[in-house]
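Hi there,

I know you've been waiting on this one. I reran it after we fixed the sequence typo, so this is the corrected version. Both the input and the resulting structure follow.
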Amino acid sequence: MLQLHTRTHRLSLPLEIELTLNFTNPIFDKEAIDRVWSYPITLPATPTNQLALGLSTRLDGRFRKPRVPATLSIDAEFELYGELKIESATPTDIKVAVDLGATFPLSAQERWILFQNLPDPGSFRIYLRPGVSNPGATAFFHLFETDFKKEATRINAAWVTHLKGEGNSQVRYPVIKAPQLYGTKNSKWNGYANYIKADTQDYITSEAFLDATPAWTDTALPLPMLKPIISQIASAVALNAIGGTFLNDTEISKLLLWNNLPVDKIVSDYDYIADERPDDPTFVIPRIHTYLPSFNIADYLPDISALDTLLNLANTFCLFIQVRNGVLKMIPIRDRLRGRPEDWTSRCEPNASQAFPDYVPYTLDYDRQGDETNEPPQLQKKYGGEESTAYVAPFFTLVERSEFPARATTTENYTSWRVPYTAEEGRNTAIDGLTKAPSLRLLFYRGRQLDSRGHYYPLAGHSRYAYGSVVVGNYSLDWQGEGGLYETWWKDFITMQSSGRVIKRRVRLTAADLAELVKWEKVVKTINDPQGQTKCVIKDVRVKITNTRIQVADVEFVTL
């Protein structure tokens, strides 16, 4: 009935074995992925078991493999993959614990490994000189014999296509304000990016129209979308696909990842500089600034592991993570709590025990990582008091809207959106020396929107709104309000945690029931008794399994 296999051998089990398996609903254990574990069991130190577990055959030898991949099966109906953790070994006995579920090394996959195959935003290197008009594509090349006009046209077309968000690129260039791009010396220079040509309402890469046509002059930098990053995480650990209702949402799949690294570290190329003219050393040529769209964006994401990335998302949008048949799934907890309940009355024995906790208030906030001084009102936390349970999201963004005069002689204003980043000016080559570790930011990409002058710009931000309170999205990163994190993702879970009571029942489960249970697709149950019907969600399951039968399971529920 009960079998344990390694990759090469079936383990010999004692006749009187009793294995206790513990299942925790991932809704209540978001930081575990398909985790099932057991208390240690004792196996005989037979030659087969020693060989299968990689132990020395010498009686005085020391085992070398504390963890061994293994499979647990019951009646060929229930099967789980994972590891056996070797606790101790003697000449007669081997003590092991079962640790099943997704064991791929997500935590070991660092950023530079994970994202090395992310799509880059282009293949051009553009050189721009501040303080002068750069017609055409304003491009300078190492090989000056290049057909400048032809190359300029080609680069200009590709650049505008990216800015407009067209094509199949999974990288976007939202409008962000980066006045510190060149440090204090050139912070007032308009930059090299998304100017608008009024007659075509299109983006150009030339300063030639700046004086004639007031336009957006904020720097646009390439930001990768969330979905290709998650795909890269999956492929890095040999998973062949991603799924789940979270990433299937079009608006979610277009989330952009940003960080608080100095912007100039991303875009400056100091290998191409001309500071003086050879025939006149007194003539100083302004530094040539460059745009490098051919780099790998992933090199500039904070160095966090794949597991950290997934867990940060889970703790921001109230998700749980599963791995099924080679597919990495990210599923909103609200979807499971709103699922159709299954009647478990016939499976449950009477005489339940109940606990009636008081209502627990809650606090909602972000892990602001030292950015509290930039906190805009719409992202302020909800404080539930000293006794409240805190729900803290690791991902957040502070995209600020500011207005500045378009002309010194007019009252007309421009509006800009900016992403805050570290305050260090100039090129920062010692990221490890920052007082705060680099952190990720999330931005919703809202596509091309109209500004107050009727010009299009590619908007990315934390809220649902563009100019004039126009709704341009379903979700926001605000904690409160319509479309906010609480109302959209967290409300069902927090309500259950705050007011649900705990019920313990003994439940009769078969091997097929266990196999269905660990899918965690139908977690809401109803139980009828003389006091009425109880609607609840499975929290923990503890079941003892022998060589001959599955004993009655102890199940803990939380009422809804």
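Quick highlight: Residues 230 and 481 are 28 Å apart (CA to CA).

Best,
R. S.
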